[in-house]
Amino acid sequence: METDTHISVIWSGIISDANYFGRYTRDILSSSDELLTSVLAFCMAPYFSLAMHESLQKIQKIDPGITAAFSKDTLDISTRSRHSLKLFEDTKRGIEGQIRYFREEIFPAHSARFLGNTCLPWARSLETDLGLYSYGGRLVTTTHTATYHLGFEPVKLLEKEAGPHIRSVFEEYGAFFGSLGANLEDEGADTFVTSLSASILHDEDVRSSKYYRQVFNGPETPEINAILTTFRALLNFTNLVLLDGLQRQHVEYTTLKIAYLSLYQVLRSVHILLKDPSYSLTASSAESAASIVGSDSAKEILNPNARPFRNMLMHYNLPPKTDASKVDFSRPFFGMIAEYFPDYEIGDFIELVRQCGYMTAGLLEQWAERC
Questions:
Q1: Do 357 and 263 contact (CB within 8 A), yes or no?
Q2: pLDDT for 123
Q3: How many beta carbons lie within 10 A of that of residue 120, not counting itself?
Q4: Alpha-carbon distance 154 to 20, whole Å?
């Protein structure tokens, strides 16, 4: 049974996210660098989708007809995009389903769109079908990763005339968050966007078949390598872009939520891959994966007793067994950090997420390059 406290926790999370996304969009609109804003759109899309999907799930209990305000395509896209954050924890796909999605949909869509466009035999070897985007020398997204996270059907996303459709979907997102209080005129704190430097953002086009042979688990597992590349980009983005400059003494709900959930899902997914004998990792890869999930900080993040905290941030719900009298709206995350990470004050918890995130991102970099 949902009490007033439970409902207040849900709405506090929803409104915090909407406010943040409004300020983020305000800061994006003030940027004149098209490449930077495009890359950030790729990187932030699944987090917008997560907030939209979960908010709608909660609001629908009050207003069952709210989904009628959105096109079916937009609802389907937000659902797929939101589920992409689960990575190998996605119960509908699991590891095999994610591999199949890359092999049967993402790879062919890019190849069909970008390869075979020249009649000159000698020029075909120069064609590329994978875009890499790096910030400060570290990969933060790729066109395959973006396709995976955006939630659009890959072939439709890559159509030459897809622009208006993509724009219409995100206009629906914007209208929804606007109804929850997002405001482009908000004079609140700047988001991470204002601290970024477009001069250290670089793009490169490569042939995906060649690229994936040279990273992570080697030439025999291109799909797994592509998914691990997605993990790599996800954590590089949250740790080198989103969290850069985050103060230990101050936490923005949405910023830490994004960083924590991304870290948790990557760690959990590496653990799932490592423990599943169906997917052969090379000795070097197994060693790399074990080092990622075997650190003390990773064990803290993955502690099963703290799983309800992850669920709260993912779904907005107060964990069902929580003593409502311990909820404190004056404290970050309603005082729940003390419940699920009892050895950590808020500053210590921020440092745990930051330190574990940086270390995990670094280990993924090393793993990618050991092949």
A1: yes
A2: 64
A3: 7
A4: 29
pLDDT tens, residue by residue, 184-219: 999 999 999 999 999 999 999 999 999 999 999 999
Left if phi > 0, otherwise alpha if psi is -120 to 50, otherwise beta: which for 344? beta
Q: CB–CB of 50/314 below 8 Å?
A: yes
Backbone angles phi, psi at 206, to 5 degrees: -135, 170
Residue ranges of the chain with per-residue pLDDT less than 50: none
Domain boundaries, the chain: 4-370
Q: Give the gyration radius of the chain's Cα atoms.
A: 21
**pLDDT tens sequence across 22-45:** 999 999 999 999 999 999 999 999
| Residue 63 burial (10 A CB sphere; 0-12, 13-18, 19+) | exposed
Q: Give the H/E segment covering residue 130.
A: strand 130-135
Task: Give the pair of three-digit tokens for residue 166.
Answer: 């993509």
**Distance between CA atoms of residues 268 and 158, nearest Å:** 31
Reduced to 3 states (helix: H, G, I; strand: E, B; else coil), residue 160 is coil
Separation between Cα atoms, residue 211 and residue 169, nearest integer Å: 32
The amino acid at 228: L
Q: Which pairs count as long-range contacts for 217-224, CB under 8 Å and 24+ apart, including other chains?
A: 217/281, 217/282, 217/285, 217/371, 218/282, 218/285, 218/371, 221/279, 221/280, 222/107, 223/98, 223/99, 223/102, 223/103, 223/107, 224/99, 224/273, 224/279
Amino acid at 273: L
Cα 174–Cα 102–Cα 123 angle in degrees, nearest 5 = 100
Strand order of the sheet with strand 138-142? Answer: 138-142, 130-135, 201-206
Nearby residues of 338 by Cβ (< 8 Å), 6 or more positions away: 344, 345
Query: What per-residue confidence (pLDDT) applies to 54?
Result: 98
CA 98/CA 225 separation, integer angstroms: 12
Please state, in angstroms and rounded to a whole number, the distance separating the CA atoms of residues 215 and 134. Answer: 16
